[in-house]
Write a structure and sequence with these properties.
This protein is α+β, with helices and mostly antiparallel strands. Helix content is 39%, strand content 17%. It folds into four domains: 46-255, Cytochrome Bc1 Complex, Chain A, domain 1, CATH 3.30.830; 269-401 and 412-459, 2-Layer Sandwich (Cytochrome Bc1 Complex, Chain A, domain 1), CATH 3.30.830; 509-636 and 664-712, Cytochrome Bc1 Complex, Chain A, domain 1 (2-Layer Sandwich), CATH 3.30.830.10; 736-938, Metalloenzyme, LuxS/M16 peptidase-like (Cytochrome Bc1 Complex, Chain A, domain 1, 2-Layer Sandwich), CATH 3.30.830.10. The two termini are 39 Å apart.
């Protein structure tokens, strides 16, 4: 669990479209499935206000063994003091430290260590803190949230440490990502002139360094008060008991006499167009955004702008995707965003260009699509499709209790009324084509637009000044209020007792095998009207032909890009009209096709899914387009140190085997792949007797089997047997590698080696050992590297046992200068894990992380489908979901120690570091001796020695 920040503007992923003439003609060949209306169950909740001004919202759900406790404060990055951008976000981190009655990290003991989690996020208008934990820990969480509101400890040591962590977060999210500056800095800074939405929510190194502990204490006193907060609780509780807890712990907190400051700045109306160039290092493809001023989230025009936004960029049938990515192929990705701020904000569109295309071309394409909304009404089909997608997404978000709490809190903080979480859905459904055209004309005029181009720094003309607004120099405040310290243990308030556990109800499974050999597993996971269908086939990237890395990945990717009777656009339009998500992917030993759809539209959506799985066309023009998009994506990934280090891991660990390549393909392998390679890979793996279909959600076994038979019963089983699995990798020898990426803002550090398979008798000892080391906020690596030293935004490890091979890796991103220190610290923690047994308390807590996370996954349709699909592919009995917790709990400290000694020897680890080698210094040379240093432009992931 990492404390997170929402950057002021975040790119939506690939999106948007309208129908091309070709797609319209092809539509006539096959009638589109009929979609049923989507109904989103309302969130039933109670609301009251305490005398001190605290708003309380509670929503009871007795089907879950868990509860979420959330506190939403009406302070966000727009409230940052002048000259202190990023302050609200910095303070969010400090809220997880000590209070008068709780030592630092106690919140983690109360959540993560009992099988739950906690987190927080900072937005423009609010900061929210939330926990999910077993319901019997509810009173402790209510007590803890009240305690950190009334008696937070803010001292120099904690302030300095968390400021360093925030700097690493900024480096990771903004400075090390090729487009981090574009979204976090350029777009907000160039779109506003007056309103503090202009300032980056994550801040800047300079302003963070300028902050003092007095600034922080004054900020807490000003904004963290009961009349600026909302307590939201969703889950399994007794209402009367909960009300009494809230009255006991929150009601005594006094409301300050001082007035609550409010942002009163008003962004002036734009009087004309603006165009600006901004620049960044390591930018492989130019990008462009066009922004307009927009109304606040509560405005009556926002539902129409929200639907307009969905038509623009939601899915592959959206207008931007269809035009700029699919038809014209001038963009690698596209995005748009509707207004979502409490005060007037932005509507924007944008694109990251394809290779060889310019920001000017992107601007023209974006303007043309926006103009279409002003010039003519959208079609009835587009309108219905956008609404279906928005409503289906609302259903998905409400599957989890924290999602329901978030919906209530977001509506309250942005629109002033939690009831909007329910009423806004009806407002979306009421939007007409005329409404969309009206708001497009009202807000999205060319003469009120700001164009922001984002270009490589090397393209900046000589003498051109930086367009970034200067950072104001502001003196720190002098805080004269009370200062809280951690009380001696004997004087602290006693923590409430834990109540009796609420037993979890595990899903009941049913399975059968169809006549064609397809194994079908059905499990009810939810009362929400949602169904997940997951079709998994054995094979994956390990079956890629020699020298053709990426065949399985491209085969899966092209499943949804056209069949014998449906075009790529038609597949996207039909699935999205049903409110369905249909996605394909490939791993090392399996590939999958996953459908998420509301239950009333499951049958027609599965008909499309079956067509996609069985009859992909693999047209040459679609392969060329997807391959080009993938290569453009790789050019971006090669500028991200974390991704670059991940790419090098498999070729280094498993060289010479079927696993010794990049699963998604490389710049060298992808151009060699032909449609015949895809057709051959599909014929070998995508067959019913090599597949498992898992159906989860709101359905009975009988209904699930009927859906499976109707959609897949006619799938023919070939006469020949499925292909044999490749041999497991052998012959590993550790090797150190440094990938030099000059100018990047951070280094990615990886220590990795081969490890156990899923069938290994020590599987449970392995996952417990790895959880002690590097899973969760309280794991040893995160404690040592982030919490104690502030060297990273997060440090962790993963154990990935699969069918015929497995791997282990510890991964950290840190400033370039700290790379060597992080390698040394990681090795030390690996050594300590083998040298001394974990304490009973530590092991109990880390086991709870595993059991709690597994239980939460079982509670969602997608999570349950993923668990069951993996068990089936690896040949593990499905009864494992009943025995999982027991097997985890049975692992002893001595077994963890033995596993670490046998399987996680740091001397056998390869070290991979990607970053600015010049900045890493001698510490890395000492920590990773004899490392091969390869410049990024000389890296060849297909070569045995990884260099050209």
């Amino acid at each position: 669990m990492f404390r997170t920040a929402k950057l002021a503007l975040v790119a939506a992923a690939l999106s948007t479209t309208a129908l091309s003439p070709l797609a319209m003609a092809q539509t006539k060949a096959k009638a589109a499935p009929t979609a049923s209306a989507i109904t989103v169950p309302p969130i039933v909740y109670k609301e009251r206000v305490l005398p001190n001004g605290l708003k309380v919202l509670t929503s009871r759900d007795t089907t879950t063994p868990n509860v979420t406790v959330q506190v939403w404060y009406g302070v966000g990055s727009k409230d940052d003091p002048q000259g202190r951008s990023g302050f609200a976000h910095l303070f969010e981190h400090l809220m997880f430290k000590a209070t008068r009655n709780m030592p630092s990290e106690t919140l983690d003991r109360l959540t993560e260590d009992v099988g739950g989690f906690n987190n927080a996020s900072t937005w423009d208008d609010f900061t929210n803190y939330y926990e999910v934990a077993p319901a019997n820990h509810l009173e402790r969480l209510v007590w803890a949230e009240a305690d950190r509101l009334k008696s937070l400890v803010i001292d120099e040591a904690v302030f300095a440490s968390e400021r360093d962590v925030v700097k690493e977060e900024l480096r990771q999210r903004v400075l090390a990502d090729p487009y981090g500056r574009f979204f976090a800095l350029s777009i907000p800074q160039q779109s506003f002139t007056t309103h503090p939405y202009q300032r980056p929510g994550i801040g800047s190194i300079e302003e963070l360094d300028a902050a003092t502990v007095d600034d922080v204490r004054a900020f807490h006193r000003t904004y963290y008060r009961p009349d600026n907060a909302a307590l939201i609780i969703v889950g399994n509780f007794d209402q009367a008991q909960l009300d009494a807890m809230i009255d006991k712990y929150f009601a005594p907190i006094a409301k300050p006499a001082s007035a609550l400051p409010k942002v009163t700045a008003v962004e002036p109306a734009r009087t004309g167009p603006k165009s600006v160039n901004t620049y960044g290092p390591n930018v492989p493809l130019p990008a462009v955004a066009i922004t307009w001023l927009a109304p606040p989230a509560a405005d009556k025009d926002v539902p129409a702008l929200t639907v307009l936004d969905a038509i623009l960029s939601a899915g592959k049938s959206s207008r931007l995707y269809d035009s700029l990515v699919y038809e014209e192929q001038i963009a690698q990705s596209v995005f748009s965003a509707a207004p979502n701020n409490a005060q007037p904000g932005l509507f924007y569109v944008g694109a990251v260009m394809a290779g060889g295309k310019t920001a000017t071309q992107g601007e023209a394409g974006l303007r043309a699509q926006v103009a279409r909304f002003r010039d003519a009404p959208v079609t009835a089909a587009e309108l219905a499709e956008a609404k279906a997608g928005l409503l289906a997404d609302a259903v998905r978000r409400r599957e989890e209790i924290d999602g329901r709490g978030f919906a209530l809190g977001y509506a309250l903080q942005t629109e002033g009324d939690a009831a909007v979480a329910n009423t806004s859905l009806a407002e979306l459904q009421a939007v007409t084509a005329a409404d969309i055209q009206r708001v497009a004309k009202k807000y999205l005029a060319d003469d009120r637009s700001t164009v922001i181009r984002y270009l490589p720094e090397k393209d900046r003309p000589a003498g051109e000044k930086d367009a970034t607004p200067p950072i104001p120099k502001v003196a720190s405040v002098k805080y004269d209020g009370p200062v809280t310290t951690l009380a001696p243990e004997a004087e602290r308030e006693k923590m409430p007792a834990v109540a009796a556990p609420v037993p979890a109800v595990l899903p009941t499974l049913a399975e059968k095998t169809l006549a064609n050999g397809l194994r079908v597993i059905v499990a009810k996971s939810s009362d929400l009207p949602l169904v997940t269908a997951d079709l998994t086939v054995k094979g994956g990237a390990s079956a890629d032909p020699q020298g053709l890395a990426g065949v399985s990945s491209l085969t899966s990717g092209l499943l949804t890009e056209g069949t014998a009777t449906r075009s790529a656009t038609q597949i996207a339009r039909e699935t999205e009209a049903l409110g369905a998500n249909l996605e394909a992917g490939s791993g090392w030993e399996a590939a999958s096709l996953t459908l998420s759809v509301t239950a009333n539209n499951a049958a027609p959506a599965m008909a499309i899914m079956a067509d996609v799985a069985q009859h992909p066309a693999f047209k040459a023009e679609e392969l060329d387009r997807v391959r080009t998009e993938t290569l453009d994506g790789l050019s971006v990934s090669f500028q991200r140190p974390g991704t670059l280090a991940a790419f090098a891991t498999a070729p280094l660990l498993y060289a010479g085997s079927a696993y010794g390549h990049v699963a998604g393909g490389t710049p060298g392998s992808l151009p060699k792949i032909k449609t015949t390679d895809l057709a051959k890979a599909h014929a070998a793996a995508w067959r019913p007797d090599n597949a498992v279909l898992v159906l989860t959600g709101d359905l009975t076994p009988e209904a699930g089997f009927a859906l499976a038979e109707k959609a897949f019963g006619g799938w023919k089983k070939p006469a020949t047997p499925p292909p044999a699995a490749p041999a497991a990798p052998t012959g590993y020898a550790p090797r150190n590698l440094v990938i030099d990426l000059p100018g990047t803002g951070q280094a990615a550090v990886v220590l990795a080696k081969p490890a156990i398979t899923r069938a290994d008798p020590n599987y449970y000892q392995g996952i417990v050992a790895n959880t002690v080391l590097g899973v969760g906020f309280s794991s040893r690596l995160n404690q040592e590297i982030r919490i104690k030293r502030g060297l990273s935004y997060g440090a962790g490890s993963s154990l990935t046992p699969q069918g015929r091979f497995g791997g282990f890796s510890a991964r950290v991103q840190t400033k370039n200068e700290s790379a060597g220190e992080v390698v040394t610290l990681t090795r030390a923690e690996l050594t300590r894990l083998a040298a001394e047994p974990a304490s009973t308390a530590e092991l109990t807590a880390r086991k709870s992380v595993l059991v709690g996370g597994f239980g939460r996954d079982l509670g969602t349709s997608e999570g349950l489908a993923n668990i069951l699909g993996n068990l089936a592919v690896y040949g593990v009995p499905l009864t494992e979901i009943q025995s999982y917790a027991v097997k985890v709990e049975a692992v002893t400290p001595e077994e963890v120690q033995v596993f670490a000694k046998d399987k996680l020897d740091p001397a056998q680890m390869s070290v991979i570091v990607a970053g600015d080698a010049k900045a890493m210094g001698e510490s890395l040379t000492k920590a990773a001796p004899d490392a091969t240093v390869i410049a990024t432009d000389k890296l060849d992931l297909d070569a045995p020695n990884l260099t050209k």
